[in-house]
Amino acid sequence: MWVTRDNLYSVDRLLAQPDPAASLRIRMLGKDEARLLLRYEVSEQNRYYGEIWEIAQVVLGALFFFFLLFGTTEGKVSLALGLVLLVLILLQRFLLAPELKALGKLLDFGPVSLLHGERARYRVVNAAYAGVELGKWIIQLALAGLLIGRRRPRSGNAGK
Asked: How distant, in Å, are the alpha carbons of 27, 35, 44, 66 from that of 62?
């Protein structure tokens, strides 16, 4: 989320103090058109980074769940939290992210006056995505607390 936001702000930073070679081209294109084109490029990069991160989360989430299931003696609560985490990751990847991507592409060059409904829908889907992200953080913290906080008996040979 930090990279996405910073990338979007980089367009305004670049336009505020452009390189002299770029200045001429920006003037030819017009500052508003240059901003629109640069924001489109940044949005495409952000969508690509988001997709790569989501794929990584699916792989890591599945590996973690199957590790809990087959590689540990964790109880039902830990397994359930791991499964809920994986389901949330899959929900983001295959339901929310494609909708955000499609709406984002529609809004990139669309006129503000004609796309009011789509902008509102984008905000709702984006808020849902952020809510799922927050839920994942809460589950991860709870799961970490369970896994770290559990006292395990030491073997009789630990002191030797």
From this structure: 50, 40, 27, 6
Domain of 97 in residue numbering reads as: 16-149
The pLDDT value given to residue 156: 57
26-83 confidence digits (pLDDT tens): 999 998 899 999 999 999 999 999 999 999 999 999 999 999 999 999 999 999 999 9
Distance CA 20, CA 152 (A): 64
- 1 part of a folded domain: no
Closest CA to 109 of 14, 40, 8: 40
Q: Is the model's pTM score more than 0.90? A: no
Give the largest Cα separation in the chain, rounded: 78
* Token pair in block for residue 47: 């969508």
Q: If you average pLDDT over residues 127-139, what whole number do you get? A: 97
Those residues whose C-beta lies under 8 Å from the C-beta of residue 53, and which sit 6 or more positions away, are: none
- Buried b / exposed e along 74-88 (16+ C-beta atoms within 10 A): beeebeebbebbbeb
44: its two tokens: 């495409």
Q: How many domains does the chain have?
A: 1
In a domain, 9, yes or no: no
